[in-house]
Amino acid sequence: MTVTDNLSIVHLIGQASMLVQLVMALLAMLSLVSWYWIFRKWFQIRSAQTSTGTFERDFWSGADLNTLFQSAAAARDETGGIERIFESGYREFTKLRAKSHDQSAIIDGARRAMRATHQREMDDLEAHLAFLATVGSVSPYIGLLGTVWGIMNAFRGLSNVTSATLAQVAPGIAEALVATAIGLFAAIPAVVAYNRFTHDIDRIGIRFDSFMEEFSNILQRHLR
Amino acid sequence: MTDAPRLDSVAPPGKWASMALTVLVHVGLIVFLLVGVRWESHPPATLEVALVSAPTPVAEPQAKPLPKPEARPEPKPEPKPEPKPEPEPKPEPKPEPKPEPKPEPKPDIATKAPTPKPEPKPEPKPTPKPEPKPTPKPEPKPEPKVTPKPEPKPVAAARDDYMAQRLAQELEKAQIERLMRDDANRMSAAQTQAGLHEYQSRIAAKVRGNLMRPPGLEGNPEAVFLVRQHPDGTVVSVTLSRSSGIAALDDAIDRAIRRSSPLPLPSGQELFRAELELRFRPNEE
């Protein structure tokens, strides 16, 4: 029978106006999807990091290029991006070496193949990051829209009352602020994850790049 | 065999795991919000007991609809929002003194809680608007002249044209409805809180019995104490949460609370509160 007794979160959401509830539902959906992609990307980037680490260790421990290539080609679906870069470069290198004797053409061809794979890998790693960025920047505004609307309603309810007390607006404002809270809950993890993932992906890209350069040098030495 | 690595064939790492984790995160958050956070649920935790010096309040819980001494102690024991409705009676210049103000604030709050906002709005609207119309008639002529007098309404309704009659009837009906609704509200509340009232008044009676009021009290300062007690009623601690402004009075109340140490226990175990909020006012004007 008292106002305060009914200020539970369920009640606040249930009492909100239609638009505010729509906003909350939208934000809840955004939050679900963004968390899903946060976890997906997290797993993907982590596995890319570990596979890059293992391959680099194998590669620089002096293993034979042919055996490395065969193992990479045999398990290309389970390997990481760096192995696929190596595989495509080495494949192009062996093919070209059989046909031409122009050293620079062979190296260039291998580099182009590696560059193409590199771009595909980076694109795969960066996929859906834009969604996280969008959620991070937009969902606070969506939540704010719901809050502003809810507060407008709460104050409009005061227009017919002779003596306005805080108790008459407080529940409306509280339920309106829930929308902002949900918006922030969706936005904060998305922003943090986005920044973290772009940083990680940049570092992986640098590792790929330096591997490509070093591998080109190795191929060039091979030709002589 | 093609040169291009086929990325599509690569199994997406942890698709189901991420879904499960996502659901887990949200379920965790919801559970935390529902269970972990106490949403303003202080009323059950602390019990307010009004220590008004008037000797009558002991009989309060049973006789609810009584006019004066009753109405005052009643609002106080009720949890928190009670202070809010209190200011409202003032703007009400209606003929009835006590029963009127109560219906006014209550429907506002009560309807706001269980039903959506739009409800309270349409209700009050019809009543204020029709009022000016029926009232003009009673005065001298049936001409529509504005004289805001609520009393002569019934006379006007009976005598005047159909519209005015209808308006008056509607107004009356709305008022009766409001009163009935309010009554029902109060009844249910009274039933659930009857035990609580009895408990409160027994505590109040005991503490009041032990209180020695310092001489020369002026004005009506209110002191609020927070009292923690063991399940057997033993007072654990007494803290002054709002001073009355008179140190001697604060001390006297403090002593009185401590002296009544095994506080009376409620009839039902579920009514027991480990924390009590005791309000004291020397004069119950």
Strand content of chain A: under 5%
The major sheet of chain A is characterized as:
none
Strand order of the largest sheet of chain B: 1-4-2-3
State the low-pLDDT regions of chain B, or none: 1-10, 53-150
**Range of strand content of chain B:** 5-15%
The protein's oligomeric status is: heterodimer
Number of helices of chain A: 7
| Class from secondary-structure proportions of chain A | mainly alpha
Q: Report mean pLDDT of chain B, rounded to a whole number.
A: 64
Largest interface: A-B, 53 and 54 residues
Compute the separation of the termini of chain A in Å. 91 Å
Radius of gyration from the alpha-carbon trace of chain B, in angstroms = 29 Å
Kindly describe this structure.
- The complex is a heterodimer of chains A (224) and B (285).
- Chain A has 224 residues and is mostly helical.
- Chain A has a domain at 3-63 and 130-223.
- Chain A is 84% helix and 0% strand.
- Chain A has helices at residues 9-15, 18-60, 65-74, 81-99, 103-126, 129-156, 166-223.
- In chain A, helix 1 (9-15) packs across helix 7 and helix 3 crosses helix 4 (81-99).
- The longest helix of chain A is centred in the last third of the chain and has 58 residues, at 166-223.
- Chain B has 285 residues and is of the alpha+beta class.
- Chain B has helices at 15-36, 42-45, 68-71, 105-112, 153-159, 162-210, 247-259, and strands spanning 46-52, 223-229, 235-242, 275-281.
- Chain B has a four-stranded mixed beta sheet.
- At the A-B interface, helix 1, helix 2, helix 4, helix 5 and helix 7 of A face helix 1, helix 4 and helix 6 of B.
